[in-house]
Amino acid sequence: MRAITIPEPGGPEALVWDEAPDPVPGEGEVLVEVVASAVNRADILQRQGFYDPPPGASPHPGLECSGRVVETGPGVSGWAVGDEVCALLSGGGYAEKVVVPAGQLLPVPKGVDLRQAAALPEVTCTVWSNVFMISHLRPGETLLVHGGSSGIGTMAIQLAKAVGAKVAVTAGTKEKLDHCAGLGADILVNYREQDFVAEVRQATGGAGADVILDNMGAKYLDRNVQTLAVNGRLAIIGMQGGIKGELNIAALLGKRAAISATSLRARPAAEKTAIVAAVREHVWPLLDGGHVRPVVDREIPMSDAAAAHRVVEESGHVGKVLLVVE
User: Fold this and answer.
1) What is the three-class DSSP state of 177?
2) How far apart are CA 119 and CA 180, in angstroms?
3) What is the pLDDT at residue 114?
4) Which of 72, 160, 199, 311 has the fewest CB atoms within 10 Å, measured from its CB?
5) What is the DSSP string of 38-78?
6) What is the average per-residue pLDDT within 41-67?
C-alpha cells in the first residue's frame, strides 16, 4: 500500500507519500480500505517528533478514518466485508489501508458522505468523553468551548445544544465566530479583542461557566478557574498554550470546582471501546436524525498531506481538514 511516512521529524515537508507494508488484521481486528482521514493537532506533533505512537500502534500518523471493511480477523463479529465504516485509531489513518480493533469501529451515519465521516470519530469521542462522561454537562448549564471553530469546537457546540445547554465560545476572528453562531453558539468572544472571563460572567449573570473545554492548557489555566461557576468542571484536552501553569487552589476550593486532563490516543483499548460504544448510543442517533453534522473545511489529496498540515498550523480553517485517498 501507500502511506504517509516520516523519515525524519520536521516541517510539513517531512511527510512523504511512499510505499509501506500492508497491515494484517489480528485477533479481534478489522482491515479497512481507507477513503479519507482527517488532520489532528496530534498528527502535527508526531510529525515534529514530539508525540510518538503508543507501543504497537502504526508508525503512520492519522487518528481517524473512514472507508470500507475488506477483511475481518479471527474473533470479529458484527462487521462484514463491504461495510462502510469510520474508525477511531491509535495511528495509521494516513494510508490506503489500516487495521482497527473492532470495538473502535462505527457505522457511517445516515445522510453522511463516506469521506466526510472521517471527520467524526476523534471529535465525537473527545467531546462525549470529556464534556459528558467526565464533566457531566447537563441541560440548562453553560459550556465554554475554547477554539469554538475547530473540529472539536464545532462538534462540542452542536452536542451541547442538542442536550439543552447554553454555549459560549472563543475564536480569533468575526468570521469564525459567525460560523459558531450558525451552529448554535449563544455567547461569542473574540479572544483577540475581549476578555473571556468578563464576557462569560456578564452573559451568565455573574455565575460563570459550568463546564469549560480547554485546548490551551497553561496559558488559560488561571483565567479558566476564574471563569468557572460554583461546582464547575474544567476539562483540559490540549497544551497549545504551554504545559506549566500556576493554579490558585484557594479559588478552586472556593468554587468546589474540579479539573480533569485527558488524552484519547494512549488510552487502553478497553477504554476506547467503552467511549466508542457510548458515542454510538448517544451521538449517532443525533447524526442519523440530522440534528448534528460533521463540519468539514476542505478536502485535500492524502498524497499532499503537507498542504493540509500547513492549513491546520495556520489556523485558517473551520471544522476539519480531510485527507482523501485518490
Assistant:
1) helix
2) 17
3) 98
4) 311
5) E--HHHHHHHTTS-PPPTTS-SS--SEEEEEEEEE-TT--S
6) 96
